[in-house]
Amino acid sequence: MKNPIGIILIIVGVALLIFGYNASESIASSFSRFFNGTPTDKSIWLIIGGVVALVVGAAFSWRSSRS
Questions:
Q1: Phi and psi based region of residue 62 (left: phi greater than 0; alpha: psi -120 to 50; beta: remaining)
Q2: Which of 20, 1, 25, 10 is nearest to 59 (CA)?
Q3: For 14-54, what is each residue's pLDDT tens digit?
Q4: 52/65 Cα distance (integer angstroms)
Q5: Helix 41-66 × helix 4-24 angle, to 10°
Q6: Which residues touch 2 (CB under 8 Å, ≥6 apart)?
Q7: Secondary structure of the chain as H, E, C letters
Q8: Can you list the pairs that 41-44 forms with residues at least 24 positions away whose Cβ atoms lie under 8 Å?
Q9: How many angstroms separate the CA atoms of 15 and 54, rounded?
Q10: pLDDT band, residue 64 (cuts 50/70/90)
Protein backbone atom coordinates (compact mmCIF):
# COMPACT_ATOMS: atom_id res chain seq x y z
CA MET A 1 0.00 0.00 0.00
CA LYS A 2 1.24 3.47 -0.83
CA ASN A 3 2.04 6.00 1.83
CA PRO A 4 -1.18 7.90 2.65
CA ILE A 5 0.77 11.04 3.57
CA GLY A 6 2.30 11.12 0.10
CA ILE A 7 -1.07 10.74 -1.59
CA ILE A 8 -2.59 13.46 0.60
CA LEU A 9 0.30 15.81 -0.23
CA ILE A 10 -0.18 15.16 -3.94
CA ILE A 11 -3.88 16.00 -3.66
CA VAL A 12 -3.14 19.15 -1.63
CA GLY A 13 -0.47 20.16 -4.15
CA VAL A 14 -2.86 19.86 -7.07
CA ALA A 15 -5.52 21.82 -5.17
CA LEU A 16 -3.03 24.61 -4.36
CA LEU A 17 -1.95 24.77 -8.00
CA ILE A 18 -5.58 25.11 -9.09
CA PHE A 19 -6.25 27.84 -6.50
CA GLY A 20 -3.03 29.62 -7.51
CA TYR A 21 -3.97 29.55 -11.17
CA ASN A 22 -7.44 30.89 -10.40
CA ALA A 23 -5.93 33.63 -8.22
CA SER A 24 -3.52 34.59 -10.99
CA GLU A 25 -6.47 35.12 -13.35
CA SER A 26 -8.42 37.31 -10.89
CA ILE A 27 -9.15 41.02 -11.27
CA ALA A 28 -6.77 41.90 -8.41
CA SER A 29 -3.99 40.02 -10.13
CA SER A 30 -4.78 41.77 -13.41
CA PHE A 31 -4.43 45.18 -11.72
CA SER A 32 -1.21 44.07 -10.05
CA ARG A 33 0.12 42.83 -13.38
CA PHE A 34 -0.84 46.14 -15.02
CA PHE A 35 0.95 48.31 -12.43
CA ASN A 36 3.81 46.04 -11.30
CA GLY A 37 4.21 43.59 -14.14
CA THR A 38 3.73 40.58 -11.84
CA PRO A 39 0.68 38.78 -10.43
CA THR A 40 -0.28 39.15 -6.76
CA ASP A 41 1.86 37.64 -4.03
CA LYS A 42 -1.01 35.37 -3.01
CA SER A 43 -1.15 33.65 -6.38
CA ILE A 44 2.63 33.25 -6.51
CA TRP A 45 2.77 31.68 -3.03
CA LEU A 46 -0.14 29.35 -3.82
CA ILE A 47 1.62 28.10 -6.95
CA ILE A 48 4.96 27.69 -5.15
CA GLY A 49 3.26 25.86 -2.28
CA GLY A 50 1.44 23.60 -4.73
CA VAL A 51 4.64 22.66 -6.53
CA VAL A 52 6.46 21.96 -3.26
CA ALA A 53 3.60 19.84 -1.89
CA LEU A 54 3.37 17.94 -5.18
CA VAL A 55 7.09 17.19 -5.27
CA VAL A 56 7.25 16.15 -1.60
CA GLY A 57 4.14 14.00 -1.98
CA ALA A 58 5.55 12.30 -5.06
CA ALA A 59 8.83 11.67 -3.23
CA PHE A 60 6.98 10.12 -0.27
CA SER A 61 4.87 7.93 -2.55
CA TRP A 62 7.84 6.84 -4.68
CA ARG A 63 9.95 6.13 -1.61
CA SER A 64 7.28 4.01 0.07
CA SER A 65 6.57 2.02 -3.09
CA ARG A 66 10.23 0.98 -3.40
CA SER A 67 10.30 -0.52 0.12
A1: alpha
A2: 10
A3: 999 999 999 888 888 888 888 888 888 899 999 999 999 99
A4: 20
A5: 160
A6: 61, 64, 65
A7: CCCHHHHHHHHHHHHHHHHHHHHHCCHHHHHHHHHHCCCCHHHHHHHHHHHHHHHHHHHHHHHHHHC
A8: 44/20
A9: 10
A10: low
